């Protein structure tokens, strides 16, 4: 096992709010990076409106990180049958507050800031000692705190943004002597030109490089520099933006795209007292080159696990020295031997995995194995949780100690339906498949997919 | 050039633009798109994702031997094959 310790929520609260029982108001403002990136020069980037609608409904993950005595603000009320299912699992749920009017293209914080009544409710909760614990802290959550008198359980927005920058990650890894791919930070167009010069040399040796927006969403804002024409084009594109805006400062990194066996994501928590606690490491599962989910446990060998834990300790102390307190997620790679690239990217916010921990503690016991993933769905019309429960049948896990699918977000299933009400839409059914063995896990995963396809609510793995 | 001739020239350019977009999309996505129409929506229906946008732009610039002003790009231009064709033709002064 990867030394997974129970009691995460209490540890988290102690770290960010000073006491294991401190009441928190949770906000699932996923893709907070979009707010951090405002005002930065970026490469062209566009995405579907329905995709943003689904991302914004990832707010419902917060239900399963919060517990009794906590509060969660959501964009819409959860499906009643889904709430009943969570209670049936024996989960203590927080008090749920819902915004009066949600906009699919806004995140939950933006909805609250426009709400006529919720800020006053939060002011009341602040008076009772509640603190705000968002997915990530941006200027929007700080604005909410200013308006409600609530304190942030975590770090200030400017520090979170700075720590989350891929430039910070490269500099800190160098400073700490942590192994990382060859790369260069670019804060001016000239530095970008020099970095691309290095990239050309690597390309001539048959090695690949990428350019990354320092404030891009994890996995986005990255361009693989396939040839010299693309490198020239990136340079001119960014140069043009700088010339037109008069803002000379840019924030990109250029680095080698190293061959690797797999992706890791690990998490640690930094307390206001500087204490660092390693929470977990998870291994990404890919199928046909496409990210499918995370395997629990990661089943790393001792040397790789030691390298990850050591990096977490070093990074945690370094972040604490900069005044950071809160959850930290790090993306890492398994190299082609028995080692790791322990830090590719530092995320100064919660991770998808953060919201799985409570379920993991209660439903993935010793000797059990699990796969956290989402099942893509395509729906002609809204399908409620009761409908999905009928489709999933006995593949749905309904009690501790068993095998099956634990659904840990249902809002993302129908979120896209509101963008184009008369058309079929894509959604995601997030869950954790729990099994007693790897073979059972594979069979369950295939069974769930087959059920969704057979009922016409999915067409893909 | 007569109005009729100008109209024909525009129509041909538009047809070529749409064909080139189809070819570039197939290149980026790695598979043919037999059902593609001008109304096909690039993200929802065709399957383009945010990481494919840069690659699509590079493929289109190469195919048309142009360099787009990326500061003029807006989300609405990537709505569908039609809106992308409109944008490209506008940029090329067709």
Please, could you describe this protein's structure?
Chain B: It comes from Streptomyces lycii. The complex is a heterodimer of chains A (461) and B (94). The longest helix of chain A has 20 residues, at 302-321. Chain A is an alpha+beta fold. Helix content of chain A is 36%, strand content 23%. In chain A, helix 10 (189-204) packs antiparallel against helix 11. The mean pLDDT of chain A is 94. Chain A has an eight-stranded antiparallel sheet, with helices on both faces. In chain A, strands 3-2-1-4-5 form a five-stranded parallel sheet. In chain A, strands 6-9-7-8 form a four-stranded antiparallel sheet, sandwiched between helices. In chain A, strand 2 (71-74), helix 4 and strand 3 (95-98) form a beta-alpha-beta unit. Among the domains of chain A are: 23-152, no CATH class; 182-256, 2-Layer Sandwich (Dna Ligase, domain 1); 364-454, Alpha-Beta Plaits (2-Layer Sandwich), CATH 3.30.70. Chain A has helices at 8-17, 33-36, 49-56, 80-88, 108-113, 118-127, 139-148, 157-164, 166-176, 189-204, 228-245, 302-321, 357-363, 385-392, 411-414, 438-454, and strands spanning 24-27, 71-74, 95-98, 131-134, 151-152, 183-186, 209-213, 222-224, 252-256, 262-270, 276-287, 290-296, 326-334, 340-347, 369-379, 404-409, 425-435. Chain B is mostly helical. Chain B has one domain (3-91): ACP-like (Non-ribosomal Peptide Synthetase Peptidyl Carrier Protein, Chain A, Orthogonal Bundle), CATH 1.10.1200. Chain B is built from four helices and no strands. Chain B has helices at residues 3-29, 42-46, 53-64, 81-91. The longest helix of chain B is centred in the N-terminal third of the chain and has 27 residues, at 3-29. Chain B is globular and about 30 Å long. The relative contact order of chain B is 0.18. Chain A binds chain B through residues 43-48, 50-51, 219-220, 222-223, 226, 229-230, 233, 236-237, 240-241, 244, 420, 425-426, and chain B through 41, 43-44, 49-51, 53-55, 57-58, 61-62, 67, 69-71, 73, 75, 78.
């Amino acid at each position: 096992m990867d030394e997974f310790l129970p009691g995460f929520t209490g540890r988290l609260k102690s770290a960010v709010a000073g006491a294991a029982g401190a009441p928190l108001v949770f906000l699932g403002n996923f893709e907070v990076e979009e707010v951090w990136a405002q005002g930065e020069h970026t490469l062209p980037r566009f995405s579907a409106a329905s995709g943003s609608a689904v991302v914004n409904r990832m707010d419902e993950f917060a239900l399963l990180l919060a517990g009794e005595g906590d509060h969660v603000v959501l964009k819409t009320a959860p499906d009643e049958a889904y709430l009943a299912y969570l209670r049936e699992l024996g989960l203590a749920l927080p008090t749920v507050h819902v915004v009066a009017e949600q906009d699919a293209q806004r995140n939950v914080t933006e909805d609250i800031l426009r709400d006529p009544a919720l800020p006053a409710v939060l002011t009341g909760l602040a008076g009772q000692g509640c603190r705000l614990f968002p997915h990530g802290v941006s200027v929007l959550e700080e604005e909410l705190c200013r308006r409600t008198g609530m304190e942030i359980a975590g770090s200030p927005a400017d520090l979170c943004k700075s720590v989350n920058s891929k430039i910070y990650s490269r500099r800190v890894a160098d400073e700490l002597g942590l192994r990382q791919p060859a790369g260069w930070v670019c804060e001016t167009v000239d530095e970008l030109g020099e970095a691309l010069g290095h990239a050309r040399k690597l390309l001539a040796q048959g090695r690949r490089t990428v350019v990354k927006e320092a404030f891009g969403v994890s996995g986005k804002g990255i361009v693989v520099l396939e040839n010299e024409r693309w490198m020239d084009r990136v340079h001119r594109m960014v140069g043009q933006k700088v010339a037109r805006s008069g803002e000379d400062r840019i924030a990109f990194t250029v680095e080698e795209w190293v061959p690797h066996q797999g992706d890791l994501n690990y998490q640690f928590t930094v307390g206001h007292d500087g204490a660092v606690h390693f929470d977990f490491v998870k291994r990404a599962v890919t199928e046909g080159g496409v990210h499918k989910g995370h395997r629990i446990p990661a089943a790393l060998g001792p040397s790789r696990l030691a390298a990850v834990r050591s990096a977490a300790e070093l990074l945690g102390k370094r972040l604490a020295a900069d005044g950071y307190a809160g959850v930290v997620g790090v993306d890492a790679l398994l190299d082609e031997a028995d080692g790791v690239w322990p830090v590719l990217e530092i995320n100064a916010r919660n991770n998808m995995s953060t919201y799985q921990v409570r379920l993991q503690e209660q439903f993935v016991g010793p000797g059990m194995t699990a796969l956290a993933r989402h099942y893509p769905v395509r729906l002609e019309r809204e399908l409620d949780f009761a409908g999905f429960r009928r489709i999933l049948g006995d593949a749905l896990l309904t009690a501790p100690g068993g095998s099956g699918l634990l659904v840990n977000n249902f809002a993302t299933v129908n979120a896209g339906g509101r963008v184009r009400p008369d058309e079929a839409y894509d959604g995601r059914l997030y869950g954790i498949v729990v099994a007693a063995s790897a073979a059972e896990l594979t069979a369950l995963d295939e069974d769930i997919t087959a059920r969704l396809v057979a009922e016409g609510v999915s067409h893909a793995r | 050039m007569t109005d009729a001739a100008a109209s024909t020239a525009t129509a041909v350019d538009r047809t070529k633009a749409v064909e080139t977009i189809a070819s570039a999309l197939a290149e980026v996505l790695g598979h043919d798109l037999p059902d593609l129409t001008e109304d096909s929506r690039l993200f929802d229906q065709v399957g383009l994702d945010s990481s494919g946008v840069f690659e699509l732009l590079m493929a289109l610039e190469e195919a048309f031997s142009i360099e787009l002003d990326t500061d003029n790009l807006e989300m609405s231009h990537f709505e569908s094959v039609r809106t992308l064709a409109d944008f490209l033709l506008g940029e090329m002064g067709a």
